[in-house]
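Title: Prediction job returns without error message
Component: structure pipeline
Severity: low
Priority: P3
Assignee: unassigned

Description:
Job completed but the reporter wants confirmation the result is attached to the right record. Sequence as submitted:
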Amino acid sequence: MFQEIPREKPQTFLLDLINSPQDLERLTLNELEKLADEIRGFLLYTIGQTGGHLGAGLGVVELTISLLKVFNVETDKIIWDVGHQSYPYKILTGRKDSMHLLRKPHGIAPFPSIEESRYDHFGTGHSSTSISAALGLRLAQPKNTEGNNIISVIGDGALTAGLAFEALNHAASLQSNLLVIINDNAMSISKNVGGITNYLPNTPLEAGQKNGLDKKSNNLAKNFFTEMGFKYKGPIDGHNIPELLNALEFEKSDAGPRILHVKTVKGKGYKPSEQDPTRSHAISKIEPKVTEAGKTWSHIFGEWLCRKAKVYPEIVGITPAMKEGSGLSGFAKQFPKRFFDVGIAEQHAVTFAAGLAAGGLFPVVAIYSTFLQRAFDQLIHDVAVQNLKVMFVADRAGLVEDGPTHSGVFDISFSRIIPNIIIMVPSSESALIGMLDLGCAYDGPSLVRYPRGAPQNKNKEEKVELGKGLLLLEGERVAILNFGALINEAREAAELENYSLADMRFVKPIDQELIKELSLTHELLVTLEENTQVGGAGSAVLEVLSSNDIRTKALTIGIPDSFIQQDSPSKMREASRLTKAQIIRAIKKKLT
């Protein structure tokens, strides 16, 4: 008989046994620590396949495990802020097997979503909202559930925003039963900035550091929060599971407004992320390298700003924690005294810029479109009413893979209604530079908006003139009026069907003369924009037609009146009916 060859016992992973938070109850301390290592490996693998925020999730693995071990997620509510800290929480609350669908259609959202899971109690795509939401949830609890815990985990710079302090002030005044956990990793995307760092210093936890070493942080933070009316504990090591379990058990049995200060390392367990947490804040899907498409819109803007700043000493650059993404790293290095990262504080960024402008400087505010909407009142009241010379450069204007919370598809609509402001939509590098030059010369507020990525239109076009569009193609029956970066789709459709094509360049002031001229020679005017149709550039054209009693038919094409769900930007544009084929079909349907 043949002797059976002994086989190695297959390796078992604890993570395979965790299908719900309740499965953590039976794990020993050693197993919890092993589970933390497995979650980090799983995060690195899945995010490498999908892309997404990496560093923050790696930093809160032990904290997530400990929270779910101590608290009852069937009755207690945990809110993660900023929401990209929530990946380990998603893994341990029944979504592990769907993580490969992160940011994909009908897949896992990149932030907490109340539609995705009963364990997500509030959507936190934008930062600094968790304490306000937690306080609302606390006060909405029925009388017989007042003993249940409401927990806000706030980190990655979210505590620098005014909204967080407004909520802290209110919670303290009500003496509500609320636990706020400060995940102090010394980072937003870049290092945290501002006076709050005196209480939460930019000193990341070192390997092996013991609780209590940072006495300055302990005393200052304790004094600050206790004076507000909070009970304070910390700072404690956010990677020490026994210490976390003890602290959370104490907080679970306590009441009133409490602060638990936890120090963590952003990117913990993955050396490249620990050493460069800014670059590893979020990563793209790991794919074979492709030829670089060229300079991005952000890089073109950043280079322009550096050139101009050498000539005009009154130029200053401002960003609300978006230095790298907005292309301001070079400016910050060359002109450190003229660069201001105000942290996650969009409202302050805009009013601060207004103050600088009132004092004779020329502020350029680089901000993502989706975050500019957080400062809508300041844009009106502090800049436009006073007609101050401030230029806003809205990056990521258009659809992005993170979905509704981060797609910048409302800036044309909400800014177009504001008097005094001019709104420019470049379709090429040369147009962007011309518009930035114009904004620099314009004596009032201006806005330039462009999408993520690199310009696809490489044409060198005519000089940019205020309120003047450019007729690119002369065709028959239909004139496409393009606003911004969808110029290639517009051109391809126009060339294929022998339509006219105008690059409008300005939403405000809009080129009324060009619209009137095209209406006389065409049977249909078609507007195209990567902004919501409601109140967008298309609406501006309809207003021109109406006010001049022009009867030419019109068709507005843009983002429909709905939130476009996460997918690749190209698929999101397809879902919005913005591809060349869809544009042509819509035009032909309108013609018939």
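Comment from assignee: result matches the submitted record. The first helix runs from residue 29 to 50.
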